[in-house]
Amino acid sequence: MLPVNEQNETSRAALRETPTGVYDLVVAGFCALLLIANVAASKLIALGPTWTPLGIHVFPLVFDGGALTFPLTYILGDCLAEVYGFKKARRAIFMGFVVSAVAALVFFIVGVLPPDPSWGNQEAWISVMGVVLRIVIGSLVGYLVGQLLNAKILVKLRDRAKPGSLWFRLISSTVVGEAADTILFCTIAWAFIVDWGTLGNYIVVGYLYKVGLEVLLLPLTLLIIPWLKRREVRVLQ
Question: Taking the complete model, does pTM exceed 0.70, yes or no?
Fold first, then answer.
């Protein structure tokens, strides 16, 4: 019989090479949450009274609607990287990238096609769903860089990890991945459109919110990942 460490490594390798149907469900959820976030991100939200001490935009807090679901994609991304390895996580990340790009293309085509005269909502459609090129580019670039960094760091730390360090790996990868994602998206999408105070507020609030939400949901993630590993190992045995 193989030693326990070798058995664990064999199980990990099997998961990376032969993911089961649960992998597909996680990827589907990952892509669905990403699409929802991309659509919701078309609205900027401001919460709180106006407060700009010394000209610094402190309130209202500015963020976009995508903040409600986008952090959840990082939680699922953590599950993919930790359980299935970087290659399988990267596959899901690229799938999300392609799905997002196709969605943006479809929204653009629908927007330029002539509306039925009786519909009367063309301007509303363009206002809400119309494709703004720099926002699409910012979203795709930020997402791709942030998610790949998150997965890569998580896997690198896992290979050197001590028992009980999963929480540290999850937070560390999120801190770096979300920083890259938030800075790239906000800068590419909104620089020179909103004032610099609003942009800075947008970046800081968005980043702290996303990282804070992942930390808040960390106990749930710490339950899901071991359960997923045990479930997959049982299926493959």
Answer: yes
